[in-house]
Amino acid sequence: MRNIVLGLVAAGISASLGWIARTYLWKRKLRRKQAFFGLPDNSESLLVVNRDPATAEPAVHRFDVFALLELSALVKDCGAHVQVVTQDAAHQGFGERTEFCVGGPGSNRRMVAHMAAMLPGVRVNIDPEPGPDRGAFRIGADLYRMEPGITEYVLLARLTAGERRETRPVFLFCGQRAITNQAATRYLARHHERLARKYGSGSFVLLLKVVNSQAYGPDVVELVADVTKPAQSPLPAPSEPTAPKTQKKSHRAD
Predict the structure, then answer these.
(1) pTM above 0.85, yes or no
(2) Which residues pair with 138 in a beta bridge?
(3) What pLDDT does residue 249 have?
């Protein structure tokens, strides 16, 4: 009987210790995620939605809706709250609440303001007329053209203003098409732990390439480069036109 009792006690202690260890690891993982996104328990965040430029009426493209759903899930996982506002109704500064801003400058005025203030080295061609440079990104001296449905680019950025510890970050999802915005939010959801280990609470700007979206949707994404330095530096003086980027070493995350 004594051996049985001792066995039960030992099993209970082992189970308790295992539960405590799992709880500790889960909470530590959650705290790291909250720190990266700037979303402590019960905090407020802002989700700025763009408009679909293909329609005359105020509307959101379905791929952008999917992006918003993925971001809302991230916020919920952190135990925080989200307020959704349209791109023309977000009349406030940044740093007080974590902000997720979706859509390129052609469909999101808030994105235009953020890029002008924090990404002076980036230009996006928003000319509605068809042409090889339509939607192209210029980052520093490099030009990135898109081939719709084949090769498309999107900027994923985490930016902070000032050095105050309590300053909340702004996340930008600036794509050449709506499907690339969703691809960037999905990339962030899948790789936020790795990004947190690499960048901590600092700023970064990543250029991602969405491969063959007409077949694979937003699932096949390659990291083209960390473009933080050229994106945050003033554009170089005009010179000879730079050939568009066609081949670049990438890291696939599908």
Answers:
(1) no
(2) 123, 143
(3) 47
